[in-house]
Amino acid sequence: MSFHALIVEKNDTGIEANYQVIDNTQLPEGDVIIDIDYSTLNYKDALAITGKAPVVRKYPMIPGIDFAGTVVESLHPKWKTGDKVLLNGWGVGETHWGGLAQKAKVKGDWLVALPIEFTSRQAMMIGTAGYTAMLCVMALESHGIFPEDGEILVTGANGGVGSISIAVLSKLGYNIVASTGRPKQVEYLSALGAASIIDRNELSKQGKPLGKERWAGVVDCLGSHTLANACATTKYGGIVVSCGLAQGMDLPMTVAPFILRNITLSGIDSVYTSIEKRQIAWNSLAKNLAPEILETIVTEIPLSDVISKANILLQGGIRGRIIVDVNN
To answer: Domain residues for 66?
Structure first.
C-alpha cells in the first residue's frame, strides 16, 4: 500500500520540496494511523517548504502542522477504527511527518476528537490558526476582559489567526478594531465582525513608551513594533495576547506599560498545549464559529498546488485560510 505526499528534503544544494509516492511501511513511529481528509497550508508550513527558515528539524519531512481525518488502525486505548479526529502541533511537520499527505501515523495522545458540529473540511478551515485564535480568546476571558470593557485590537487581521479571532470575538459581543495593511479588505473584515479598521502603519513603526490608553485587550499576530505599540496603548489592567511574529521576533519597548498601567503580556503556545485545553478550545469553536463564516475566509487547493501557494503566502498574497484536499 502507498500514498501521495509532499516531501521536503535537504541536499547539497539546499532545501527541496517535491511530490512523492510513499510506501506505508515508511510511516514513522506511532500507535494510530489516520486516513487524512484535509490539511492546511500555514505560514510555518510555507517556511518549511521553501526553506526560508529552519522550521524542519529532521529530513526527509512531510510538512503540515495539522490535519483531520479518520482512524484506520489504532493500538491506543482511546481511539478505534472509524473515529473522526484532528491534530494540531506536537511537532508534526517539524520533527514528525505531518499532514500534507494522504496518511499519517502519530501518537494517539496527540489527537483530539473532531467535534460533531464540524466536518473534517470545516475543522481544517479553522485549523491551527483558528485553534490558536480560540486560545487567545480564552486568555482574554480568563483575564476578566468582557465586551463592556472596551475595544479589542486584532493585528494581522487578514491572516488566519486574525480573521478567526475577529469572527469569534464578534460572536461573543466584543467591539473589535482590526489592524491591516490591506485597505481593500475593509468589506471582508467588516463582514467577519470588525467594528472599525485602522491602517497597520499606525502601529508598525517606533512609538512612544506610553501612548493614549485605548484597548481593553489585544490579540497580536505580528510582534516587533506592533506588539510594543499595542502594549503602550492598552488600558490600565488590560491584557495583550501575543501569538505571532510576522513583523519580527524583536520587542523594542520599555517596562512602562507593565509597571505604570499594570498590563499583562500573555504568550500563546499552540504546539504543546494540553489535550484537555485543546478539547475545550475546539468545543468552544464549535459553539462560537458558524460554518458559513468559515466559507468566506477560505481558499481550497489540491495537494499538487501547495508548493506554488507557499511562496505566495510568504509574500503576503493570501487572505484568510488555505485548506488542502490531500486526496485531490
So the answer is: 2-114+297-325
